[in-house]
Amino acid sequence: MNLLIDTHILLWAAFEPRRLPRDAHDRLMDPDTRLWFSAVSIWEVAIKRGLDRPDFRIDPGPLRAGLLANEYSELALEGRHCLGLGTLPGLHADPFDRMLIVQAAAQGMALLTADSKIAQYGGPALLVT
User: Residue 82 has what DSSP assignment?
Assistant: First the structure.
């Protein structure tokens, strides 16, 4: 299974593993699952860190390097991913989360999330609590 990991779960896995829901931990540790992170998540961390948000004090460079070192695959943002935004219902206002949803759908991946707003989209969203 190919699993795209949303930004908060990436941050929890890397820096606060005790915050991971048990189901998320189990899925991240499954040897039959290929783990992916999106360039959109690195962009989100960089933007929100620049805004001095307390929940995004992470340096995106070492975060990306650590994910790659731990055998996560990186999903680049492509124009074809952006096309899906035009048909996505307005259930969630966060542009980064919206892009992760359309990327997962375009790539045929599940999007692992703990965000109930993302889960409202159904389709690729896989809610863990």
Answer: H
- Which residues are paired to 46 by β-bridges? none
3 state SS of 4 = strand
Say whether pTM exceeds 0.85: yes
> Tell me: the pLDDT tens digits for 93-122?
899 999 999 999 999 999 999 999 999 988
- State which residues form the domain around 8: 2-127
CA 118 and chain centroid, separation: 11
**Cβ(109)–Cβ(2) below 8 Å:** yes
34-64 in b/e form (b: 16+ CB < 10 A) is ebbbbebbbebbbebbeeeeeebebebeebb
Which residues are registered as beta bridge partners of 75? 38
User: Which residues of the chain register pLDDT less than 50?
Assistant: none
Helix axes 39-50, 95-107, angle to 10 degrees: 170
Identify the CATH number of the domain in which residue 57 sits: 3.40.50.1010
Structural domain count of the chain? 1
